[in-house]
């Protein structure tokens, strides 16, 4: 009995020590972030020695890294042109920190503006409101937080994208109903994703084929690197495999065509992706994807920085900035290669 109690105490002490190490590590890392940037005479100085008039926090957590890296690249470059340093906030933390905590840290750091992928979380809205009350404007990207004091949302026309997907799916219509599954992000419930489904439905309706469109949304989690992959694989293992599947981000897109390859379903299902990264374009050119929809990610990042700059200079900015999207098929990629 004494040995058992001794082991239990050791386990508890080990756990407490581990949590203490993690907490101290996060505390130190937070102060590294807050201390990396100094302020002298109204100027922001970064470690490289360059000085800027303003400091913006760019915050993103979750998947779709290639897309968000491109968005950040556009924000960083445009910010430098406008005398502002855009920091990928929290990128140097060794411990995982959730998005709301990063926003709170950015507010405590006294940044001049925040760029973030919004969501429907009530806590996020409260933090955005807190930032605004403290004179820190917030711009949301791709996913909005409409019930907040964010100054601007930079995104794309979700309904228009839905119409684009619908038009592509209709290319394969052959006088029988089409079962369509849309892979959706549970962190962006409602809003844009619902509009994409409406756009697909209306594309059919405009052709008098509303009853031929059997469409449903399926939420796919990507909490770990393997969660999305497993949930998308489950679709191919089910009894009723849809005729067409639409992926609304690059993570789902890669998992989708890879699952089709693994289960020998290429050609059995019409698959449509999102983003124009090299591997996705290669999948389109090989016929794994029927098409993908591209958005100029760097332009989106630049637009977010421009929105902050305009608001800080004038006190006004457009509530919604829409970016154009483009459908890319295999033929378009071949033409690009020939042009090169």
SSE layout:
Blueprint: H1 2-35, E1 38-40, E2 43-45, E3 51-52, E4 54-59, H2 65-81, E5 84-88, H3 99-109, E6 113-116, H4 122-133, E7 138-141, E8 152-156, H5 158-170, E9 178-184, H6 192-205, E10 213-219, H7 227-237, E11 244-247, H8 250-262, E12 270-274, H9 278-285, E13 291-295, H10 297-314, E14 320-323, E15 325-328, H11 330-339
Parallel strand pairs: 4-5, 4-6, 6-7, 7-8, 8-14, 9-10, 9-11, 11-12, 12-13
Antiparallel strand pairs: 1-2, 2-3, 13-15
Helix pairs in contact: 2-10, 3-4, 5-6, 7-8
In short:
The protein is of the alpha/beta class and 340 residues long.
Strand order of the largest sheet: 5-4-6-7-8-14
CATH topology of the largest domain: Rossmann fold
Helix content: 40-55%
Task: State Rg.
Answer: 23 Å
Largest sheet: 6 strands, parallel
SSE order in H/E notation?
A: HEEEEHEHEHEEHEHEHEHEHEHEEH
Number of helices: 11
CATH class of the largest domain: Alpha Beta
| Domain module count | 2
Q: What's the number of extended β-strand segments? A: 15
Oligomerization category of the chains in this entry: single chain
Low-confidence stretches: 18-36, 335-340
Mean pLDDT: 85
Tell me the span between the first and last alpha carbons: 77 Å
Shape assignment: elongated
Structural class: alpha/beta
Query: Could you state the CATH homologous superfamily of the largest domain?
Result: Response regulator
Note the beta-strand portion.
15-25%
CATH architecture of the largest domain: 3-Layer(aba) Sandwich
